[in-house]
Amino acid sequence: MELWFSEPHTKNVKLSIRVNRQLYSGESEFQRIDVFESPEFGRFLTLDGYMMLTEKDEFIYHEMMVHVPLAVHPNVKNVLVIGAGDGGVVRELVRYDTIEHIDMVEIDPMVVQVCREYLPFTTTGLDDPRVSIRYEDGLKFVRRCEDAYDLIIVDSTDPFGPGEGLFTKEFYGSCYKALHADGIMVNQHESPFYDEDVAAMQRTHARIVQSFPLSRLYQAHIPTYPSGHWLFGFASKKYHPLRDLREAEWNARRLSCRYYTTTLHKGAFYLPAYVEEMLVDVEPEC
Amino acid sequence: MELWFSEPHTKNVKLSIRVNRQLYSGESEFQRIDVFESPEFGRFLTLDGYMMLTEKDEFIYHEMMVHVPLAVHPNVKNVLVIGAGDGGVVRELVRYDTIEHIDMVEIDPMVVQVCREYLPFTTTGLDDPRVSIRYEDGLKFVRRCEDAYDLIIVDSTDPFGPGEGLFTKEFYGSCYKALHADGIMVNQHESPFYDEDVAAMQRTHARIVQSFPLSRLYQAHIPTYPSGHWLFGFASKKYHPLRDLREAEWNARRLSCRYYTTTLHKGAFYLPAYVEEMLVDVEPEC
């Protein structure tokens, strides 16, 4: 039998993955949720037909969301994670024994249930006693917070559908307010390659720049995301992602990673010329 | 009408590109050659059905093949280019007025003819008076050379079919001999992501390590190549790709690039942990 999952990356290009079988398909209040098993990527999760993670390459995304800010901020104790229902971000966070509390705010409880059942390799951190899972809209949750967190990680879906509010100027303003005076916000920031993604990426960056004094993008190779060239935002009140990188200190933790190293950390911020150019109009010097 | 070109990246994953029309299809003595026009990537060239280049992202590959060694070697005068029938590598090379001569050795004259006609954006350098095009087997050509070049660029197809000889230990040994005492060899080095590519990448690296005292890999985001994470080999008799990077000197040339910058140059050598690990057994310290 030939069974293929295809995701259109634009209306003119698509990536197709051979599927052994569909493990789950359901519709929550917010979105359609599917889990597949594939020979190339192992299990993978899609929301509304968009690839969220695969067993083979999820380590890249999750390591880059977590270890980059943790190697810069000297003292992360309280973390807010928005979205991230698959648990991958929390799994990386709970590896730090210096973190005291993690609030994970996910709008869709069904995503967490499905991942616990079908993707246990991402949910291992969710039962850590330091983790509180709150099922509500991240936009509304963060509005109520003030000077509460050292780090906010925004692990959202794309800037349409349920995740749309997590790409607004109001949301970034609320995150700024929710952070301590030396806080950092990291978010998934789309791709610089296809025109539609570029527009979203520039708009997002422009909005973050309005809220945070320092805003930089960094990149990773994520083969199952559109173009494979994915960006993350590093927005900060105080620390610079390179000048304040605490390389020796992070390496002394002896956390073994499969993608992240403190050397790679630096290279992740060295963007191609065409990406730098896309940011020129929206990024102030710092 | 729906017309799609699909390339299997493994037998379980494929990338598909919508096509407006096929501009050329022919069979040379060595391979099948096709040119298509697409809404997303502009024109693109395939050899035996494998993607060689697209109008939209070829700049990444060609800039990374050429400007990385040119920013390290202080005095490149004579260059040997093997393969590269599309002309993209030569187009970047002829931007350096300090280069005196370029031998381009391409086995298949039909590739050059087809590219001249259908992909004129890559062939602009081929008529430069410093360029000699030789239609012969690169493996045989380089056997006859001794102490003749400052730089060899191996822009081959994959390690099977007509390009197979360009991945042998004998070939790398000949390249070593063909280079001056401070020469550099750069080659396309496959991807670290899918198992089949990994095997080819490790085998290639092991063979280069046996011929050159210094061998390093660097990476780029090339969306239309398998996984989008592509590697290049930097093999050198003397210069280190980072310690000998002549940043100010290269920037003083004022060559405007769309992907390459001397900052990105450094990051390109900062590989993910899992790629470093793949090289541990074959890469000696240096």
UniProtKB/TrEMBL annotation, chains A, B:
- The EC number(s) given in the record are 2.5.1.16
Q: Which Gene3D superfamilies match?
A: Spermidine synthase, tetramerisation domain (2.30.140.10), Vaccinia Virus protein VP39 (3.40.50.150)
Q: What GO CC terms are in its UniProt record?
A: cytosol
User: Which positions bind spermidine?
Assistant: H62, D86, D155, S156, T157, D158
- Please give the catalytic activity noted in the UniProt record: S-adenosyl 3-(methylsulfanyl)propylamine + putrescine = S-methyl-5'-thioadenosine + spermidine + H(+)
**Do you know which InterPro entries this protein is assigned to?**
PABS, SAM-dependent_MTases_sf, Spermi_synthase, Spermidine_synt_N, Spermidine_synt_N_sf
Q: Where does S-methyl-5'-thioadenosine bind?
A: Q31, E106, D137, G138, P162
Q: Which residues form the PABS domain?
A: 2-237
The source's domain of life comes to Bacteria
Active site (record annotation): D155
Q: What class of enzyme is it?
A: transferase
Q: From the UniProt record, give the pathway where this protein acts.
A: Amine and polyamine biosynthesis; spermidine biosynthesis; spermidine from putrescine: step 1/1
* NCBIfam families the UniProt entry points to: PRK00811.1, speE
Q: Which family does it belong to?
A: Belongs to the spermidine/spermine synthase family.
User: What is this protein's record name?
Assistant: Polyamine aminopropyltransferase
Q: What species was this sequence derived from?
A: Merdimmobilis hominis
Q: Which gene encodes it?
A: speE
